[in-house]
Design goal:
Layout: H1 15-23, H2 25-33, H3 44-57, H4 62-67, H5 69-77, H6 82-97, H7 99-105, E1 108-118, E2 124-125, E3 133-143, E4 148-155, H8 168-180, E5 185-192, E6 197-204, H9 208-223, H10 242-247
Parallel strand pairs: 4-5
Antiparallel strand pairs: 1-2, 1-3, 3-4, 5-6
Helix pairs in contact: 1-2, 3-6, 6-7, 8-9
């Protein structure tokens, strides 16, 4: 493929960037086109989720957890009390001892907190601005009996059924894994820690071209969008750009024909 990632308007992409456009193209415009600074407000749910992720990813190693930058931010935010921090450890421990947790943690861990960049051929490259797609994988477990990699993402909070599950993030990351590891199949796993439930889906090397096409079909309308239409949903009430959007009542996008290049 001769096209470089730099030739794309919004590369490097990430799952959050793509999902922002899906949620509301105007929000995408404020964030990634106009690049209006946002004031990030932490919350109990956000800090709790980050801490539970950290506990699981670092295998309950308290010394390592305390040294991690994310733990420092959580302590600095002063949202979680000491008792709530202790409860996060209990929630994580209860999950590992549940039937769902044991089906993961009894297996060999191949990696934790894997930082990944993909090039345009969906092969692993450096995590840099030159990458086409970037992201993190919480953990990879190996089922040695079936030689299957369990590509796993931890979820806290509300449970989504398998029919409601958005598989795209782990599916895209599986493309990079297929490019470097000799697996013929990978199991995508969304682990709902609070609910002791797993949503799983198997993906196969033989279907790589279909998965690649799906990713390009997702990126294409984002690259071609110059109007950034507002999509009103209940989530508008929690948008970081709500004030801008309300004030911008006459928001007009850019017609592609008007672009001077």
């Amino acid at each position: 493929m001769s096209l470089s990632a730099q030739a794309l308007r919004f590369a490097p992409y990430s799952a959050s960037k793509i999902n922002t456009w899906k949620q509301c193209p105007r929000k995408f415009n404020y964030s990634y086109v106009q690049k209006i600074p946002r004031e990030w407000e932490s919350s109990y749910a956000l800090d709790r989720g980050k801490l539970i992720h950290l506990i699981l990813e670092l295998n309950f190693d308290v010394a390592e957890i305390k040294k991690h930058r994310e733990f420092g931010k959580i302590v600095k935010n002063k949202i979680l009390t000491k008792e709530q921090i202790k409860d996060c450890f209990k929630v994580a421990k209860d999950f590992t001892e549940s039937k769902a947790g044991k089906s993961l943690f009894t297996r060999k861990q191949l990696f934790n907190e894997l930082e990944m960049g993909l090039d345009l051929n969906m092969e692993i490259t450096s995590y840099s601005e030159a990458a086409f797609l970037r992201g993190y994988i919480d953990v990879g477990f190996l089922d040695e009996k079936t030689d299957t990699l369990l590509l796993t993402d931890y979820k806290t909070g509300k449970y989504k059924t398998k029919d409601q599950q958005d598989w795209s993030q782990l599916l895209w990351y599986s493309l990079g894994i297929f490019s470097k590891m000799p697996f013929d199949k990978i199991m995508l796993v969304y682990a709902y820690v609070d609910h002791h439930k797993l949503n799983t889906r198997m993906v196969y090397r033989k279907d790589i071209e279909k998965y690649k096409k799906g990713l390009w079909d997702t990126i294409d309308p984002i690259e071609k969008d110059y109007n950034y239409q507002k999509k009103e949903t209940p989530l508008c009430n929690w948008c970081n750009y709500q004030d801008h959007c309300i004030a911008d009542t006459k928001f007009v996008g850019i017609n592609e024909e008007e672009i001077p290049f």
